[in-house]
Model the fold of this input.
Amino acid sequence: MSGQERVVRYPASVEHADAPSPVLLVCEHASNVIPADWGTLGLAGGLLTSHIAWDPGALGLARALAQRLDATLAHAPVSRLVYDCNRPPDAAGAMTTRSEMHDVPGNTGLTAAEKLRRVTAVYLPFHDTLHGVIADRLARGRPAVIVTVHSFTPTWFGVPRLVELGVIHDTDARLAHAVVAAAEGCGLNVQLNAPYSASDDVTHTLKLQALPYGLANVMLEVRNDLIATQAGEAAMADRLAPIITRAVAQFP
Amino acid sequence: MSGQERVVRYPASVEHADAPSPVLLVCEHASNVIPADWGTLGLAGGLLTSHIAWDPGALGLARALAQRLDATLAHAPVSRLVYDCNRPPDAAGAMTTRSEMHDVPGNTGLTAAEKLRRVTAVYLPFHDTLHGVIADRLARGRPAVIVTVHSFTPTWFGVPRLVELGVIHDTDARLAHAVVAAAEGCGLNVQLNAPYSASDDVTHTLKLQALPYGLANVMLEVRNDLIATQAGEAAMADRLAPIITRAVAQFP
Done:
């Protein structure tokens, strides 16, 4: 594609912008939509609905949490296969050529111009929108606590994962520890920094949107078999909403 | 002013966008321009050209450095009295009501709507532009090293300051230490984290633009009596350019 053409931009979708909760829910892997310009990236249909294209259930869970917490939700409208908004532009995973055991043909051998087009179309508009939402709160003197919502696949390279709720932090671990404490006795297998941790480069949004402002923040990872249906999403939200509320109550 | 009116946006001015140096120079306090909408903020003319409105000499020095290093320069086109781009929206100093010993009448009792207008007009466009410049480099696989350029007044509340070059860091001190080492024997009074340090909340740009990407970064503060003329700016740039080059050479 020519560098001259006008790039369509895909900002974050923001729901309940004026909701009163201090919590700002963020869902970077909400969508498996690949805009027409990028075709199917060479992938078969089944893969385009699998966890390599998005975090199945994460948007449904995030919306159910937004409702229960009366919180703002920002989510990315484009598949992470086009650009993973939770990765910086120089990360291998930003426009990945391979996810779990699957090659992504449409991401192989990308030119600098095509990488820039995706950065301009997806990454920058997503994070610019999020910066705007956060700056708006700070300017109004309203608190902001960043909670990112993800899901992970129950098996990874054939190995089952026992963790059900992963609670992940970057250099500011306050809210993560508060969530783990608040989750005690909730009946889920809760683990800190599992199945991923900051060393896997999964905390870019926290680094970019929360740490510069000193905002309490955490990344939640829910095993996607537990939120595979709308009823599952609702049940998980019923479980997590009071945990988040208790944990967040410790922050001004 | 009504929240309905269209807000004029003032993005960072970017010079030498395609320059080859890894160094990206940033000058948040480059300008003492107050757009007509904000009048004089109630200040007498003399104050509008003093250090409370901008960092005198910083833009001239940054431009002279950009030329010598063959580096990109991004600078803010609006006075920090309207919005200080090196402060987050909830900082008292973002739209300060008092600078050194002077009240800023036009910043007293700002409504949330007026704060938001300034955030939207000045803060967000500046940092969105900078994010774009950095993302562009990272997507191209080019290195980026962030050097912010400031000046400070030789006396503060009547007390003379002896430091001539301040080298300031946030949590990543690598480049600051490299600059101090490279400056040895340069003939200037060089001090680490003086006359300000991160605890004075002066490292917002470093937190927002460099730390999330793991980019080497430093804030330079030059005493403004040394760069009060174009000749002074040129002489200081002649001195600093090789120091920066030597320090930056240690980073991939």
